[in-house]
Every structure is written in C-alpha cells, then in structure tokens.
Amino acid sequence: MSAGKIGVGEQWWRPERFAVRRERLETRARIVAAVRAFFAVRGFAEVETPCLQASPGMEPHLKWFSTALTDPYGGPDRTMSLHTSPEFAMKKLLVAGMPKIYQLARVFRNAERSDTHHPEFTMLEWYRTDVPLEALMDDTETLVASCAEAAGVTRLSRRGRSCDPFQPWRRLSVAQAFRDYAGIDLLATAPDPLQPQRELIAAEAARIGVSVSPSDRWDDIVFRIMMDRIEPHLGFDAPVFLHSWPLSMAALARPLGADNRVAERFEAYALGVELANAFGELTDAAEQRRRFAEDQALAQALYGAAPPADEDFLAALEFGMPDSAGIALGFDRLVMLLTGAERIDDVLWAPVG
After folding, report:
1. CB–CB of 292/298 below 8 Å?
2. Which helix H or strand E contains 203, and what residues bound it?
3. Domain residues for 23?
4. Domain holding 95: CATH number?
C-alpha cells in the first residue's frame, strides 16, 4: 500500500501518510470556511442537532448504528440510533419557526465503505421555507462555484475527467434521461404512480440488455437501469440536476403540481458522482405516516429489521410544517471533486479505522 493511501486498520496518523493528504485537507478547511460565508451572507442560521436520535431515518436500504441510552435515574434503557441524516430534527426547527437553516452534520451509515462512501461522513444540509425547489438548484450552483473559488480551481475533476461548475448546470427530468440514454418511456411503466408495473419495466430492461432478478421490484429495476445506462452520462460537460422523480421514489417529497406521477425531487450529479438530493418537502402527516409504514414493511421483508419511525417528527408535521424545500449534499464528495482526490478517505482528517 502506498504512503498516504488509507485502508481499514492503517495508521493514517503516520507523518509520511498524512503528508500525502495534507494539501487536500488544508483545501478542505478553506472550503468549509467558504460554505459558512456563503450561508451567512444569505441570512441562514447554522444549527446543530443531536446525532443520537429515536429514529436513524427511514430509507429502507440504509443500515444504521444503534446504541442504548442509559437513564441516570434508574429508568429503563432506551434504544437510540446514530442518524443517517439530520433531516427530521432540522424539519422540527422549521416547525419551531426557523425559516432558513443549514448544518454541516456528522452522519452515520453502517456497511458502507467504497471510494465514495464512508461509515461516518459530513452532510451539508439546508432548508428554506416558502421557496420553490428550483431555488435550491440556484443555491447549489452558486455554492459550488464559491467553493471552487475557495479551493483555487476552475473545474471539478475525477479520474482524468473534468467539468465546469461555473457555467449553468443542466436541468434534466428523470423521464427525459430515460428517453435519451435508455430509450425507455419510464412513466408509461407506472400508469398508477403508487403501484408501478414491475413487468413493464422488467421487459424494457430486458430489451436493452440490463439484467434483473425475479425478486427485483420496479424501483430496483429503475435503479439498475440508472446505474448502467444513465449515471455514466451525467455531469461530464457541466454538472446536472436530475429532477421530477417518479412519485414512488421520493418518500419525503410532495407531488409535483397536478402531475401526481412525479414528485418534487432532484439529485445533483457531477462527473458521474451523485452530489446532492433535494425535496420539495411533504408536509401531510397522514401521507408521511403511510409512506413510513411502506418503508418499514419493505425493510423488514428485505433485511429482517426496520427502523423505528420518529413519532415526534410526525407530531411536528401534524402541528404544522411550513411549505419548504430541503437538500442534503455530500460534503466530502464535493471536496473530492474540488481537489481531484480518488477516494473519500483522501479528504478526511481522520478516517474511520
């Protein structure tokens, strides 16, 4: 293993290893300062919410870390989790009356480690009330450009490829991406947005040579086509916003206007790397509870365990959350693209051993 390349159990603190990463880490510090300056001049409050939560988050495919919270007065221990996102707590702050908030949060996802994944990483998450989802696209374009200036670069780069974050980012619907790159009319395979037709999308996958298994659901097949035929094309001239996702693939987003087949969701991509995920936030507590129950049933069926719902979050929705939009951006991935790093460990001050 070369000096500076960090693996599980490696002594990252050895001076010769740290020296290889030091310049990128110093750049990371400048990017952090640029992020805080960006939000400060726009009137956002920087908030801090607990990593320890009653619910880690409801994404069925994410594995979480659990622990026990001991009552110092002799009551029973409570099972708690490290959050996979600060989303629920931050939305409670919207209910409390905070209109513009952001957080550089430490988040935790078990069983995730690759060139672009780490079990503990930094999520930059921000929320705005009473704005359309497109406002977060504008935020993201300007923020990334500000971070590039702080890093002293004019292009994002990864593995010999680069793209220009300063030109207008492309805005592409999921349906158009499927037509352009896979030749598939995606929405035709989901005539009922809540009960998309697995056999229709499976037939389309077979037609273009994407293999699926009998146990794959509609969503699973869509993701396979995404990874195989669409993501490799995203963000290689300028970064791209992939927007208007099928409703069944946007569990925390509201429907997009009168077209209930799609939801107010976008993901941002650069150089084939997913950078951010955003929602026009669902504020209907009953609908959110229904979607949580579906997620729990799926997690239980697939993995034999389901995350608990945050009843306090649902109570906050019932109390009344304002119209809002929110986005989660993988900060370490952004630093990777701004420094040309190969692996996420290369831009972490102290990788998990």
Report:
1. no
2. helix 198-208
3. 15-161+268-287+311-347
4. 3.30.930.10
